[in-house]
Write a structure and sequence with these properties.
Distance between the termini: 51 Å
Order of helices and strands: EHEHEEHHHHHH
Radius of gyration: 17 Å
Number of strands: 4
Strand content: 5-15%
Helix content: 40-55%
Number of helices: 8
Length: 224
């Protein structure tokens, strides 16, 4: 079988979340970089593949799918059915799905915060945006209480998605030192296949954003 084609932009957390799934499944993959800063997602050849011009996008021998979490779910279902990454037990799967929705909220907040930096040129992050992020981190902190991973004691797709998100926030300057459960979980994830690849891309994006903000530390050492 031909390798899957994966259209992505390395700095994008959703792209990296789906790529972590590809690495966890050890899939044969052709990585195709779509440079969002150069607006390559708007080129006619890409629009023929994905008319809504988003990344990531998967081409599995002619079956095209976008949306990072759907890509991860599809890959486990087709390549490793029954895997604990996306359990078949309805209750366990429901918890994984619920945590994936949490990641969707983390990403929606990231888009608002990071767009204000790299597109609008703002040099500070509004308090209401930071408050929303830290509220989400408090929820994640609570979910991790007594658990090794975000959906229980086994690594799942939810961990891979959220790992990409949290790595980005950490390198971009969010103050996470108070979240002991999150930091312990983040340390455990060092053994996840593709961790270093994700970490390096998150660091590069975070340094890019910090450079635009003109900071070297966290957004606000005293917040919250």
């Amino acid at each position: 079988m031909a390798p899957v084609k994966f259209y992505y932009f390395p700095h994008s957390p959703p792209c990296r979340g789906a790529l972590l799934t590809i690495r966890a499944l050890n899939l044969d993959v052709e990585l195709i970089n779509v440079n969002l800063r150069e607006k390559e997602q708007l080129k006619p050849e890409y629009l023929k593949i994905n008319p809504i011009h988003t990344v990531p996008c998967l081409d599995d021998n002619g079956f095209v799918l976008w949306e990072s979490r759907a890509i991860s779910q599809y890959l486990v279902t087709t390549r490793a059915p029954g895997s604990s990454l996306y359990p078949t037990d309805p209750k366990k799967r429901a918890i994984v799905d619920a945590r994936l929705y949490l990641d969707a909220y983390l990403q929606a907040t990231a888009r608002i915060i990071f767009y204000s930096i790299h597109t609008l040129g703002q040099k500070t992050i509004a308090s209401d945006k930071k408050i929303r992020l830290y509220q989400l981190l408090e929820s994640l902190e609570t979910m991790l209480e007594g658990n090794n991973y975000v959906a229980g004691d086994e690594l799942t797709l939810a961990d891979l998605a959220i790992l990409a998100s949290i790595a980005t926030y950490i390198y971009a300057g969010a103050d996470v030192k108070k979240y002991k459960n999150i930091l312990a979980w983040y340390k455990r994830c060092e053994n996840v296949p593709g961790y270093q690849e994700n970490d390096q891309a998150a660091k590069a994006y975070g340094e890019f954003l910090k450079g635009l903000l003109g900071i070297t530390g966290t957004w606000d050492e005293s917040f919250p």
